[in-house]
Specification:
The protein is an alpha/beta fold. 44% of the residues lie in helices and 20% in strands. The chain is built from 16 helices and 16 strands. The protein has helices at residues 20-32, 72-91, 104-120, 139-145, 163-166, 172-179, 190-202, 232-240, 242-254, 273-286, 308-328, 348-354, 369-377, 409-421, 424-440, 443-459, and strands at 4-10, 36-45, 55-60, 63-71, 128-132, 151-155, 184-187, 206-208, 213-216, 219-225, 259-266, 294-301, 336-339, 357-360, 385-389, 402-404. The strands form two sheets. A ten-stranded mixed sheet has the order 3-4-2-1-5-6-7-10-9-8, with helices on both faces. A six-stranded parallel sheet has the order 13-12-11-14-15-16, sandwiched between helices. A hairpin with a 2-residue loop joins β9 (213-216) and β10. The longest helix is centred in the C-terminal third of the chain and has 21 residues, at 308-328. It binds adenosine-5'-diphosphate-glucose. Adenosine-5'-diphosphate-glucose is lined by residues 20, 157-158, 228, 264-266, 299, 301, 342-343, 348, 365-370, 373.
Amino acid sequence: MGRLVVVSNRIADPRKTSAGGLAVALGQALEASGGLWFGWSGKVVDGGTPGEGELRVQNAGKVQLATVDLSSEDHDSYYLGYSNGVLWPVFHYRLDLADFDAGYIAGYRRVNAMFARKLKALLRPDDVIWVHDYHLIPLAAELRAMGCQQRMGFFLHIPLPPPLILAAVPEHEWLMRSLFAYDLAGFQSEADLNHFARYVGTEIPADVLGEHEFRAFGKSLQARAFPIGTDVDEFVELGKGREAQDMFEQMRREYSRRRLLLGVERLDYSKGLPQRLKAFRQLLQAYPENLGSATLIQIASPSRETVDAYAALLQELESLCGGINGNFGELDWMPVRYIHRNVARKRLPGLYRAANVALVTPLRDGMNLVAKEFVAAQDPDDPGVLVLSRFAGAAEQMHEALMVNPYDTARTAETMQRALQMPLEERQRRHQALLEGIRTQDVHWWRENFLTMLTELSQS
Ligand code: ADQ
């Protein structure tokens, strides 16, 4: 394989622990090939020229990190507007929250074109280019228009909705057409791949050549599901560190007389937080033996708060938490601890391990790595129980979790109760099977699968 070039909206220095499993896994592949990671610097230049941004290249070990700034106008239209105001809600099936402002698409195209221009100057002929996520769908088409012949793959980290939902995006044909500039498109789940195949079969003039091969606009495209995993070994190691141990001991001390349920996510409407809180309220109502004991720790880190839908969600959550604590709480017991902050990655394994039950109940999620990290962090002799939404991509793999429909409040509460009461032997059996699964299909497996397929295509 030639040099690997990774392109994503945000980049991370893979040497830092805060970077997370994905960055570490990509970092390893980049390091092995002396690769390049290209993306937005995170910096917004007030009053900067739209479609222009300063390029900076620095070395992080053997890897080159190349970043570009965004003007405030580009940030508003490309990032907040089109990526997070149109694609994120629609791809999570939330047409009601999409803001189809006609001005956003221009910014989305402009930034993709600018990234392509800046990146092209850094490319070598035998590079293999791997583009990540919904911010950058048209990047390959922009590169191809400038004559780039390199192999290019794309991976979508979020779900791909069914054709008729996708078709609500005014530019859906253009978006899907630009996917055909890649050689390989990867999705999180078989369900997403199936949506893609149906879209291609119905919405554009295309030939479905096989289960994984499609031809349209004079181009062939391979498409497959590559479910992303977590770096299990890295996470287990992190769990042995002082920060994680301290966290675990602190939680166990503080909640020695309680049963802990835990939710960890970015504050996002796709994660099903209000539905979860309502189910927890139902748990307290329907199973009073939990009063004075069951405690939900809900970590929801701040995310995209300038977008309206997020401000509304924040208010709803605060009101639900206040209602539950006010109605059920005692002087010495608060049923919900809601924390609107990030938890340092080094402490996360300790928090997961201290919990009796993890609630991973998104309404829609590409994969959900919290589910996998929770399993990786457990003590195999006394593991916690994973309650998982059937609408997370992870549900296709993690069959031994307790599956729920997060819209069904009564059944979700019943499942929380079942999780809290599960006998040790059943917990161990389920955990062992889950752990085996996430170990076999970890983030390195995911990366290798994708890159092997992309490079094999290169040789054909
Ligand atoms: P996210 O929507 O961000 O990612 P997820 O996969 O659950 O969702 O989490 C990604 C990482 O963020 C995990 O490593 C997790 O530990 C960390 N994280 C989340 N909330 C945190 C918090 N409050 N404090 C500290 N760390 C936190 C998108 C898609 C997912 C897909 C991933 C990877 O939406 O479906 O699984 O990309 O492809």
